[in-house]
Amino acid sequence: AQSDVVGERKNATTTTKEEEGKFDARAFRRSLNKTGRYVRKPTHDEESKKKMEDHGVGYSTTGLVAMMREQKFEAEISDKLSFKLAESYGFCWGVERAVQMAYEARRAYPGRQLHITNEIIHNPSVNKRLQEMDVKFIEDRGADNGGKDFSEVNEGDVAILPAFGASVHEMKILHDRKVQIVDTTCPYVSKVWNSVETHTRRKHTSIIHGKWAHEETIATASFAGDYVIVKNMAEAEIVADMILGKGLSKEDFLEKFKNAISEGFDPDTMLDKVGIANQTTMLKGETEAIGKLFQKTMMEKHGPADLDSHFVVMDTICDATQTRQDAMYNMVSHQGTDEGVDMILVVGGYNSSNTMHLQEIAEEYNIPSFWLDTADRIGPGNETEWMDAHQQMQKSENWLPLDRKVRIGVTSGASTPDKVVEDILDKVCAIKMS
Known about the structure:
- By secondary structure, the chain is of the alpha/beta class.
- The chain contains 16 helices and 16 strands.
- Strands 1-7-6-4-5 form a 5-stranded parallel β-sheet.
- The protein starts with a helix and ends with a helix.
């Protein structure tokens, strides 16, 4: 899958470079508003909201999660089992908005074929519902076979852009095919795009804290000029050393970041001025630390007086990602007290970056933690399949202690409907009560 999206990112970059001097990604994105074939706001249609509720792809109003919200995020099930819900969890505003717009599109355009350029969000249950509603997912054939196949998208069709956005290359294809575009991109992601466009106008190279194969970062890179993507602090330090003339040779640097740099990238000339941006689902603390690293690096190279002309950073950290991580840190901080938990359930799609970071926090504190994407991972009996923070599948037998009371912490990623969490909790209750 990573090779597929790399091909996509490179196609987008090539298009931009070929049209350099005449193609302005920012101007093109803004021009879509004038076409009469572009929607980027929900209509708040009540029938669509009702259908979301019926399908279990929104907030719970009657289940166990809803009950815990009303009872100080606690549920005392029996003398054998209690749950502690993180105070910030699950569906974020941007994700709910994207799903709502997809449901509204199905209702607003009856009889027209709907397509979506990728998963609407990183949750298998929600994406399955859209497929059942005859929304076609555009096939990605892989980088070596031409990338995504838009051949079945015809004039008059409707194309949905997912919550984490689409590359400017994809937007241009859809525009040229004269389709109705429903852009559900989260405004926080759009804020990051505005940031890298600012870097480009100021002739700064964008240093993007993210994963080069992640759909959101692919889209962000397509709106940037020159860029390098760093996954973590270790990679950021390599780039910082390069700025100061230390570390890797130019050839080794280009090999190290071959999938994570703009086409024609020259570290000798393109790291004199830098700006910081981030994939919205990355760990807040790491993004902030990377920003401070490059601020210090540019100050060392250019001096305090010239720092502002060589370094720019804007706050593009997503509030939803931040609050869910903060709530998780708050939960694990009570270990060793009566407020501590015996284990944690982390619920969310296995390709969800923000959910992975929640699992990382639990593992960092050495708390038994099980990352589950659906209730189907539990059973038969008292066994489960789960994923760890290294995205390796694990299998555990007798994972729920049956001979004593268990206090279980519960959280979920920003793409996870409450119903998915409640289905998992129902299975846990059934095992403990049997």
